[in-house]
Amino acid sequence: MSNELPNIPPLFNALSIWLCGMLFIHFLPRRNCFGRTALAVAASGFLIADFLLMQAVMSLDGMTFNLAMLAFAVWTLIPFLLFCRTSLANCLTYCAYSFIFGSFIVSLTWQLCVFFVPLKIKTSAQILISTVFFAVFYTALYLIERQHRVQLKEMQASFISCAETVFMAFLIYIVSSLSFASVEIPFTVSTYADAYTLRTMVYFGGVGLLYSQHALQCESFLGLERDTLQSTLNLQYENYKLSQEYVDMVNQKYHDLKHQISVLRSEFDSDLQSAYLDKMEQDIRIYETQNKTGNRFLDTILMTKSIHCQKAGIQLTCVADGAALDFMDVMDLSSLFGNALDNAIEAAGQLEDPRQRLIRVSVSRQKGFLCIWIENRCKETLTVAGGIPFTSQKDTRYHGFGIKSMKKTAEKYGGTASVHAENGWFELRVLFPCETDA
After folding, report:
1. Whose CA is closest to 383, among 434, 423, 337?
2. CATH architecture of the domain with residue range 290-433
3. Of 104, 116, 94, 121, whose CA–CA distance to 16 is shortest?
4. Which member of 57, 109, 141, 364 lies 3.0 to 4.6 Å from 68 by CB, making a disulfide possible if both were Cys?
5. Partners of 425 in the beta sheet?
């Protein structure tokens, strides 16, 4: 090959791949231990390390160079593992994206830079032109990725899709490097200019292939999310209908028992009988503590969840202006409170100390807003990332759909829903605009 084009400077190579990695890391949930300052310092350290490693790699040639570049690609995985609180499959997937996307951008930028800036001009001019191209390309990539911001924060890549992405990235790199290996093999060219062009075109096709796969994964994830949210909504509504039948039956039984106890007390006066009747009264006292909020649908939900709480040793307290919820469809009401209380019962039930198993529910009108607060004690280690409580479960595909369902219900009525975890308390806040205060 004739040496018609200079090699890409190591700084450009390292900077491009580093920028692409930082861009993806920006969209992924980060670990709480890294504030902005700590993240900036650590990221700067990785940039310096990337440059030094790339400089060493660029001094090699042939098969050694390609093996060293693959090792460098593995090295770029470390910031994802260090900064991001997500699965290994996610880290591998976005690391592969950043390596191929970064390699494409620097290859195209350097070709354009050399084309527009003659080699006899000083390096400072090439750096200036390359900076402009970098700014254009990475701004465009940022704007494209921002469209998938929610999916990037919440979507978890499966190990199968991760393996596919990593394998495609490996093939893209191998094919792009063939022209630099030898003129003796097929699919190669005879000049560096043609080799650069071929490599850029291969990377361009690879970027299109990887991005198409990413878009399909996002669509699949959104379809799964829509189906799961609808199933959750339907399940909560079905539970409400069953609960209403159950509560009606319990109310009837409660009144019958009260009447029977009253008759028995008037006919028997022995201590044993009195103790027996006291026990009967205690057994049915749970049904006497029904919440009368002014909304029969909310009363039904609270009654059912109160029974679950008593069985689990959880103290549930409620102060609610149920009449303020009359504007909500019963299906939305059952979905909102059903999901919220189910999550609260699950979290509080995991606490070993029965005295800490607490749930508080409040519904009130304040300053032009209908405010719903549902608080529960939880483990001190519980944290929230991307508006979703972090889970240690291996399969996270179905995690957080309950909270997503509640957020969608709030947005349906022009409101907002947010979650917060601190000092062993988990809090759900839902705000709806209302015309007048109570």
Report:
1. 423
2. 2-Layer Sandwich (3.30)
3. 104
4. 57
5. 377, 422
Pairing state between β 369-377 and 425-433: antiparallel
Task: Give the contacts of 380 (CB within 8 A, at least 6 positions apart).
Answer: 423, 424
Please name the residue that has the structure tokens 């191929």: 100
β-pairing verdict for 369-377 and 358-366: antiparallel
Q: Which residues contact 340 (CB under 8 A, 6 or more apart)?
A: 374, 402, 406, 428
307 burial type by CB count under 10 A (0-12 exposed, 13-18 middle, 19+ buried):
middle
Q: Where are the domains of the chain?
A: 10-227, 290-433
- Residue 420 pairs in a beta bridge with 427
> Helix (H, G, I), strand (E, B), or coil: what is residue 395?
coil
pLDDT digits (tens, 9 = 90+) for 170-188: 999 888 877 665 545 555 5
Quick one: pLDDT at residue 357?
92
SS3 30: strand
Tell me the CA distances in angstroms from 374 to 285, 294, 336, 339, 414, one per residue in order: 25, 18, 11, 11, 19
Kindly state the tokens that stand for 119. Answer: 């080699």
CA pseudo-torsion sign 379, 385, 388, 392: negative
Q: Which residues contact 52 (CB under 8 A, 6 or more apart)?
A: none
- Find the DSSP H helices in 117-156: 123-146, 149-154
Cβ-Cβ contacts under 8 Å for 220 (sequence gap 6 or more)? none
In the chain, % of residues over pLDDT 90: 18
Give the tokens for residue 357.
């198993």
Report whether 370 contacts 320 (CB < 8 A): no
Closest CA to 84 of 148, 31, 47, 43: 31
Backbone phi, psi, residue 306, to 5°? -65, -40
Angle between helices 36-58 and 62-75 in degrees, nearest 10: 170
Residue 416 CA to chain centroid, in angstroms?
18
User: Residue length, the chain?
Assistant: 438
Helix axes 192-267, 401-412, angle to 10 degrees: 80
Instruction: Give the tens place of pLDDT for each residue, 139-177.
Output: 998 888 887 665 555 567 778 888 989 999 999 988 887
Across 164-200, b (16+ Cβ under 10 Å) vs e yields: bbbebbeebbebbbbbbbeeeeeebbeebbbbbbbbb
Secondary structure letter of residue 435 according to DSSP = S
Q: Quick check: 371 pLDDT over 90?
A: yes
Helix, strand, or coil here: 386?
coil
